[in-house]
Amino acid sequence: MEKIVEQGLLYDFYGELLTKHQRKIYESIVYDNLSLGEIAQEEGISRQAVHDIVKRCDKILQGYEEKLKLLARFKTIREKISDISRMSEQLESDRQADQEKYRLYSSRIRELSSEILQEL
Questions:
Q1: Are residues 22 and 62 in the same domain?
Q2: Which of 2, 4, 57, 92 is the most exposed place for a label (fewest CB within 10 A)?
Q3: HEC letters along the chain
Q4: What's the domain count of the chain?
Q5: Statement to judge: residues 78 and 115 lie in one domain
């Protein structure tokens, strides 16, 4: 399951850089969950050809990620935003928090927000 999610995310970021034919076949595997045989029949090519195209696309998309790191940046930013949200909820639920805890969370929220802005 994790591989298909990773493939979907990589495709979301870099899919437009594939050829139209590659995109169609890759989408059929990743989004439509079709088998190699189903795609081969639909496209009029062999199962091996479909397999080779999917493997080539995986390699191409991974190559883009290794160079550009957009997905890695996206994941980092998502984690930081989750941290900010969690700390904000903690502050909201603990309205009678002592001043030190409030300063600590406020400082960390500002720090994370600054890091996110720098990454963007």
A1: yes
A2: 2
A3: CHHHHHHHHHHHHHHHHCCHHHHHHHHHHHCCCCCHHHHHHHHCCCHHHHHHHHHHHHHHHHHHHHHHCHHHHHHHHHHHHHHHHHHHHHHHHCCCCCHHHHHHHHHHHHHHHHHHHHHC
A4: 2
A5: yes
